């Protein structure tokens, strides 16, 4: 039994878009899309299909705009068309500093994670920082190219025409790791039956997709935002479920089918033993059904375990680095949309330097578990606690201003300083900061780390607040 979404997505991609409600004199708006980014969007038989197509149908119903597709052969060509004004907008793309030079953006309406894909046997990668000397394949023109060039200039990149072509090249060992959109990667791996490829990590930042409008047609942004804000949440969930469905397919064992046919033929020749054979077949079918049910239960349990291990630290049971980055990106997105502030607290343990012998592994693990317990007992239910790396812990406080977070940090520091394992073996320092406008997670993290270093310079045992 294997998981796949190939047949389901293929049927959806070739389905006709929803009927649009016509208006007496609609304003015609031309647009371009990524023709090879299913299921997010694609061109099939000359028709725009996918998630963005369904959202555009809803927006057309609300605004009365008439959207006309300008067909292109690649994502790079679509970017060139909208930049030159040969089409007025692109319905589904991320914002970036380069794109803001020639595009105005609507509010985001669809969010999705990006993932790292590699050959089976590749270890789990902690984002781009874990890629190392591997060559990374990425679609030309995607925002990730600009992001990696800015924040990870040491990575070796190989530009590819599309995610589907990139997966084929990855299968042929033309590079080591590929960056792609989760739903698109999952669909192509199943459709192409690339059984030797696995998802090995998340790739920051996640997609926060919006309309990009040529600046000459900036008046359209207000209409698009008006419509996006009025799309019912239930309709958004329905679209997401429709394109994110995963079905189960059972592989057939034809040798068993042939053997069963032979047995049936023999049973017809031996009419006297017919009832006995029929009873035997029923018992076999019942046994196979029980085996299938047992395999399904085992697979479900393993998937749950894998899901837990992917998001949690094995020693403390807290969330790990990947999950914290994901939650922080979500909080930044919420901040940008609703202006609800958030605070970040970084706690780090530093072993005493004057000890006779280094701490043994057992003592270190016990200390980490103590810190985890105190963190969970001190924070609120809405706060997110993670072991970020080594002896460093991060607490994300959603919708929390700096003063309230400072009270929490002081209370946590007092609890930790009073425990014998910490007071006898480690210095404790805490740094914290509040999220600022237009700040991404790396900048927010960097400011908080500077506050942590300030606490260390002051002799540990204190909470420092970033400016």
UniProtKB/TrEMBL annotation:
InterPro entries noted in UniProt: GGDEF_dom, Nucleotide_cyclase, Rev_trsase/Diguanyl_cyclase, Solute-binding_3/MltF_N
Top-level taxonomic group: Bacteria
Residue intervals of the GGDEF domain: 340-467
Transmembrane region(s): 254-273
Keyword annotations: Membrane, Signal, Transmembrane, Transmembrane helix
Keyword Signal belongs to the record: yes
Classification via CDD domains: GGDEF (cd01949), PBP2_BvgS_like_1 (cd13708)
Record's keyword annotation contains Ion transport: no
Family: Belongs to the bacterial solute-binding protein 3 family.
Name of the protein this chain belongs to: Diguanylate cyclase
